[in-house]
Q: What sequence folds into this?
């Protein structure tokens, strides 16, 4: 059931919205379908097509409520569907995926950018409010309030449930791409849980990026986004060892990286970089390509990585970009330079609860032989980390420090 929830939530919710035209009612019906599945599947077994079973149950529940309580006329203004579209079949030429329709609904220009992205991650991707809050580096209560306001705005603005037409889509592509990227990022390193990677989210993000590529084949943003996802995911199978323990980039077996994904991603990077100025995704993908194409960790062109992060910081100013550049500085110019760059970010409020800052400081402190300070920094990172695989890695580094072992 947990696997069905992770994999199918967004698809089931998006299909149910087609019936209810109301986000809150759709969520209620989907939750009810999952509750019914708990008892039904325990007796009869998991069906061959769990998503179809859940969608049917949720939609039937929705139709029941709409008929019984005469809500249909009152619900219609909440989320208006294109009159030319039937309830089940997309119009000719439209991508037949309810999830993409729901992304485009949530990413309507009537909503603010952060609300667009946060609402889509919560509704479509099935992320908890806490997980969405972590992606934005804000508190859970702050994010809960933003999500509530966004859903109310969708109802008030009568935002249609459809993929925009070809002339409307470019205005929304930036927000849609950001959603897909955050979805991938959340799956690439799960915020919490027993596994490092949530494959369902990673694969969903790549599928959605490919759909966007079909819709907008000439978009440099989309080319860069798909390149970034492919190049980053190419390392998936080598990020943990046979026992499920985290492996740093320098310790991974590069012969096992996905060569086809790297080749496709590299070609897309070249295409995306021809556009001027380059998009944030093209620059991020270029950084990923430097790592993917380096024959070994030692042969990584860290000066190029530092330079690319410098340009990225101008195009897309972000505390996380600054953090990543500081780490690259440490590998390009030595741990002392990296530590100085990291310490300059210590007053950045958005990084106060970000475990990777403390972990990066710990790595450089250990390389400088400042083991006591490194242990304190590893302890801080451990306190701020909720993914079990990452916690085990940090715990191991702390133990190694206690035994006097080198990095």
A:
């Amino acid at each position: 059931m947990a696997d069905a929830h992770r994999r199918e939530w967004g698809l089931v919710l998006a299909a149910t919205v087609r019936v209810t035209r109301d986000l809150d009612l759709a969520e209620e019906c989907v939750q009810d379908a999952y509750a019914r599945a708990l008892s039904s599947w325990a007796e009869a077994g998991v069906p061959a097509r769990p998503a179809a079973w859940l969608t049917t149950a949720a939609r039937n529940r929705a139709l029941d409520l709409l008929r019984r309580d005469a809500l249909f006329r009152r619900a219609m203004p909440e989320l208006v569907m294109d009159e030319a579209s039937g309830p089940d079949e997309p119009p000719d030429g439209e991508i037949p995926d309810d999830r993409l329709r729901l992304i485009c609904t949530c990413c309507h220009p009537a909503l603010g950018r952060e609300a667009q992205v946060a609402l889509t991650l919560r509704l479509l991707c099935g992320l908890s409010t806490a997980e969405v809050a972590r992606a934005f580096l804000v508190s859970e209560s702050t994010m809960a309030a933003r999500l509530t306001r966004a859903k109310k705005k969708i109802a008030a603005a009568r935002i249609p449930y459809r993929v925009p037409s070809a002339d409307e889509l470019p205005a929304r592509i930036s927000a849609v791409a950001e959603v897909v990227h955050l979805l991938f990022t959340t799956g690439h390193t799960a915020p919490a849980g027993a596994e490092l990677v949530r494959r369902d989210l990673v694969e969903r993000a790549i599928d959605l990026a490919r759909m966007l590529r079909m819709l907008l084949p000439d978009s440099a943003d989309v080319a860069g986004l798909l390149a970034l996802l492919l190049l980053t995911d190419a390392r998936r199978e080598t990020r943990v060892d046979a026992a499920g323990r985290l492996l740093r980039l320098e310790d991974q077996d590069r012969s096992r990286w996905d060569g086809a994904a790297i080749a496709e991603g590299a070609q897309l990077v070249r295409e995306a970089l021809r556009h001027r100025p380059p998009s944030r995704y093209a620059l991020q993908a270029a950084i990923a390509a430097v790592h993917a194409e380096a024959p070994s960790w030692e042969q990584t062109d860290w000066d190029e990585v530092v330079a690319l992060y410098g340009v990225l910081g101008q195009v897309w100013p972000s505390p996380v970009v600054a953090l990543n550049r500081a780490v690259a500085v440490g590998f390009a110019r030595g741990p002392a330079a990296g530590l100085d760059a990291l310490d300059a970010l210590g007053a950045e409020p958005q990084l106060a609860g970000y475990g990777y800052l403390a972990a990066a400081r710990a790595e450089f402190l250990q390389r400088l032989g400042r083991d006591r300070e490194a242990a304190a920094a590893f302890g801080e990172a451990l306190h701020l980390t909720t993914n079990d695989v990452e916690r085990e890695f940090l715990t191991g580094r702390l133990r190694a420090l206690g035994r006097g072992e080198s990095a």
About this structure: The CA atoms of residues 114 and 140 lie 14 Å apart. Residues 80-96 have pLDDT under 50 and may be disordered. DSSP finds 19 helices and no strands in the chain. The two ends are 41 Å apart (CA to CA).
